[in-house]
Amino acid sequence: MSLTEAATPPANCPPEAPPTGPAIGTVRLRNPFVLAPMAGLTDFPFRRLCLEAGAAMAVTEMVSAVSLAHHGRKTLGLLSTDRGLENPFCVQLFGKDPQALALATRVAVLEAGADIVDLNLACPARKVVRSGHGGALLRDPDLCCRLVEAMAKASPAPVTVKLRPGFLKDDGPSVLDLAPRLEAAGAAAMTLHGRFVSEGFGGQADWSLVGELARQVSVPVIGSGDVLDAWQALGRLAEGGPVAVMIGRAARGRPFVFRECLELQATGRVSGPTLEERLRTAIRHARLIEEEIGPKACFRLRTVLMWYTRELPGAAALRAAICREEDIDAQLDLLRGAMEEAMEAEAGLPPEPPPVDGSLLGRAAPKGGVDSKGQVG
Ligand SMILES: Cc1cc2nc3c(=O)[nH]c(=O)nc-3n(C[C@H](O)[C@H](O)[C@H](O)COP(=O)(O)O)c2cc1C
Fold first, then answer.
1. Which residue, 236, 282, 218, is CA-closest to 10?
2. What's the CATH architecture for 15-267?
3. What's the pLDDT tens digit per position in 47-59?
């Protein structure tokens, strides 16, 4: 099966709408809902599902500027996309050397086709911080400005930054002083995830800082952190301040959260995905990953399919069974079996009798329903 076959968008893909979102430099977004960059997660299959569901933009996982500047094959592979669908295409870089970042920015724009290049000044991961990248850079505001300046000078496309309020919470939100300097250095927009670097993912994101940041700069500010659903996304926008919201963890296994945002914005209501849509999306997600990386997709699916098992009865046993499988079809059969059982329960039908050997692995795929290509039977 070719990528094109696997990539046929679902019937509920939102129609092409005129741009109504904020402008980042010369690039205007269709709407104010953006998929957050997530290392190891926001590969093209996941970004594709979110874009098809209506996300205005889906930021790539962060890639090493040094590696991209040297045309590292694996790094370039992380930037695979379909420009017909991914428009604008936003590539996130991490790095701490102005020259490497300038070179990598040019490779991202001129060779990988990026419309926007984002610099990570936010990542709290120990490995990243220890090597002086990501959030660690917030401790050196002068260097942050030099990095942005080098990128902006080298880039024909807008350069943006992803920030946290500061490194240590006790030191206060240093970003409020830094941001105007980053704007002067050439940043065309800023995203703020309202947790200090030292907080990692603990506590709650402080959205009041997103509003404060927006008042400090004249470029657009995007807010990030703990947006769980369409109501919260629209609520954050309604508070004023951010011109767009990023959704990260809540989109895992729920790319349709972007459709829900658009639906809520347009109608004041959200219809929510049916179990059938969740199953179809999971299968499509699996097949898109398989298209990209072949049979070893089964290892990745041990993570990705978990996202789709949430709220299913017997989810723990189902996850364990999926993780034991090394065959993609078998993994999908397990998920389909559990989802179709949940659909029957929802429709008030009696559940199927348990398999003779009592194991989930022994279940035969039920007839009809959604097949392993994601088609409805
Ligand atoms: C697994 C994971 C990986 C992440 N990787 C990145 C990254 O590469 N670059 C970045 O700027 N932020 C990264 N983030 C932070 C998210 O972009 C986002 O700001 C954060 O998760 C808060 O938003 P959420 O509550 O909607 O998930 C990551 C978050 C998670 C959970």
1. 282
2. Alpha-Beta Barrel (3.20)
3. 999 999 999 999 9
Q: Which of 63, 193, 199 should be mutated for ligand 1, with most atoms under 8 A from CB?
A: 193
Structure tokens at 283: 């299968």
> Does position 365 have pLDDT exceeding 80, yes or no?
no
Strands (E), 225-340: 244-247
> Which of 50, 90, 123, 144 is an active site residue?
123
Q: List all residues 6 or more positions away from 213 whose beta carbon is below 8 Å from its beta carbon.
A: 163, 175, 176, 179, 190, 192, 221, 241
Q: Which residues line ligand 1 (CB under 6 A)?
A: 36-39, 41, 61-62, 92, 120, 122-123, 162, 193, 224-227, 247-250
Active-site residue, 50 included: no
Would you call 376 helix, strand, or coil by DSSP?
A: strand
Domains of the chain, by residue range, sit at: 15-267, 275-362
84-131 confidence digits (pLDDT tens): 999 999 999 999 999 999 999 999 999 999 999 999 999 999 999 999
Atom of ligand 1 nearest to the CA of 92: 9
* 350 residue type, one letter: P
Determine contact, residues 275/343, Cβ cutoff 8 Å: yes
Give me the percent of the chain exceeding a pLDDT of 90. 84
Confidence at 362, pLDDT banded by 50, 70, 90: very low
What's 370's DSSP letter? B
SS3 of residue 28 by DSSP:
strand
Question: Taking the model in full, what pTM does it have?
Answer: 0.89
241 forms bridges with which residues in the sheet? none
Sign of CA dihedral 298, 289, 370, 307: positive
Please provide the size of the chain in residues. 377
Q: Whose CA is nearest to atom 21 of ligand 1?
A: 248
